[in-house]
């Protein structure tokens, strides 16, 4: 009787071990997967095969890992899970832009945007780093959402991988560039964002150069310095949108804790340490930040390090009173910068008809 109870308890414990909360295998390093496999009685070299399935091939089903034995696949199914993302809604703009809403494993939603510029042989994906956003920028639809949680490195990677597949199918061309400019503030999800960049640029991942990746921030001074100290290879873009603290405080509350003086000091530190490209994103709002005086203030901010200014037309969103500047005012603003030796591009919005343009991502 005692023997039977002991045997039954052993069976019960084994069953509990198998059905305990599984580990998301994509949160593990290659070395950690090796350790887990050894504990499961499997050969260490299988870890690299699994890792390649996860990252190079974007596999989200252990049963599809066909060069692994059936018994090993069963062990993986019993001990691990792959929390991937899946396509929910895809929208196509008249200008070729494609917006995809992805559903996460917990049914939360995020959006990514594929921006093709075929004449320049440039195919860019704009990826999200958080579900929602906590910064409450007054002109941004995402800023009106509640921040639900940070995305994992795997969820960020999946956006790039799945949109790359989309790009190949639609345009017969792989992605050329990645911008972290979607939903959320990347520097408030620093660890996961940097891990995703490591995976994207790894030979065991997508092997895309970090020089083709741009991280856009609303301005977190201490994290910009951390980027520099970590010797990041990505390009840095500051969502500036106003060249004086009074105006920037009005539209971007984050500026109250990260003033322009501290931001410029942090970006200067970043540039000196990394020599990576720096750009300012500047949305022009009618009668607010588009005057010659505003341009003069912006010129002064651009004198500290080489910088490209991307002037962006405003994309109206519901419930916001700001209006976009007219084309003549934008041209005059850009000309003043150019006449003072500043590199400038004037970006036309893409995907406005599907709410895919800058500041419009809100899971509509």
Written description of the protein model:
The protein has helices spanning 2-19, 30-39, 46-55, 70-79, 153-171, 190-201, 221-229, 245-251, 260-274, 292-301, 327-339, and strands at 23-24, 80-81, 86-92, 98-103, 109-117, 122-126, 130-131, 149-150, 177-180, 213-217, 235-239, 278-284, 308-313, 343-347. With 364 residues, the protein is an alpha/beta fold. The protein folds into 2 domains: 2-81, DNA polymerase, domain 1; 86-354, Aldolase class I (TIM Barrel, Alpha-Beta Barrel). The strands form 3 sheets. The protein has a 10-stranded mixed sheet, covered by helices on one side. It has a two-stranded parallel sheet with strand order 1-2. Strands 7-8 form a two-stranded antiparallel ribbon. Strand 9, helix 6 and strand 10 form a beta-alpha-beta unit. Helix 2 crosses helix 3, helix 5 packs across helix 6 (190-201) and helix 7 (221-229) packs parallel to helix 9. The longest helix has 19 residues, at 153-171. It is elongated and about 70 Å long. It starts with a helix and ends in a 17-residue tail after the last strand. The model is unreliable at 1-19 (pLDDT under 50).
Salient structural properties:
alpha/beta; DNA polymerase, domain 1; TIM Barrel; two-stranded parallel sheet; 14 strands; 18% strand; disordered N terminus
């Amino acid at each position: 009787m005692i023997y039977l109870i002991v045997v039954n308890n052993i069976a019960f414990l084994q069953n509990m071990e198998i059905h305990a909360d599984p580990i998301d295998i994509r949160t593990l390093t290659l070395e950690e997967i090796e350790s887990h496999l050894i504990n499961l009685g499997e050969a260490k070299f299988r870890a690299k095969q699994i890792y390649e399935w996860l990252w190079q091939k974007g596999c989200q089903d252990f049963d599809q890992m066909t060069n692994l034995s059936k018994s090993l696949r069963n062990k993986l199914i019993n001990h691990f899970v792959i929390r991937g993302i899946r396509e929910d809604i895809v929208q196509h703009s008249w200008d070729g832009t494609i917006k995809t809403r992805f559903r996460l494993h917990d049914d939360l939603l995020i959006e990514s945007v594929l921006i093709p510029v075929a004449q320049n042989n440039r195919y860019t994906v704009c990826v999200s780093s958080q579900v929602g956003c906590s910064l409450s920028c007054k002109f941004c639809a995402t800023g009106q959402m509640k921040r639900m949680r940070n995305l994992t490195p795997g969820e960020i990677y999946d956006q790039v991988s799945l949109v790359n597949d989309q790009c190949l199918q639609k345009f017969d061309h792989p992605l050329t560039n990645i911008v972290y400019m979607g939903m959320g503030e990347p520097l408030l999800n620093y660890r996961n964002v940097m891990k995703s960049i490591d995976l994207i640029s790894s030979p065991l991942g997508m092997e895309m150069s970090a020089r083709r990746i741009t991280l856009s921030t609303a301005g977190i001074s201490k994290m910009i310095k951390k980027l520099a100290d970590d010797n990041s290879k990505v390009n840095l873009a500051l969502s500036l949108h106003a060249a004086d603290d009074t105006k920037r405080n009005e539209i971007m509350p984050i500026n109250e804790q990260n003033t322009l003086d501290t931001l410029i000091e942090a970006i200067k530190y970043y540039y000196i340490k990394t020599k990576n490209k720096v750009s300012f994103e500047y949305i022009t709002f009618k009668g607010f930040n588009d005057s010659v005086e505003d341009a003069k203030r912006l010129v002064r901010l651009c004198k500290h390090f080489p910088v490209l200014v991307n002037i962006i037309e405003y994309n109206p969103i519901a419930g916001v009173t700001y209006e976009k500047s007219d084309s003549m005012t934008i041209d005059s603003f850009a000309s003043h910068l150019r006449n003072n030796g500043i590199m400038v591009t004037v970006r036309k919005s893409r995907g406005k008809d599907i709410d895919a343009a800058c500041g419009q991502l809100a899971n509509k």
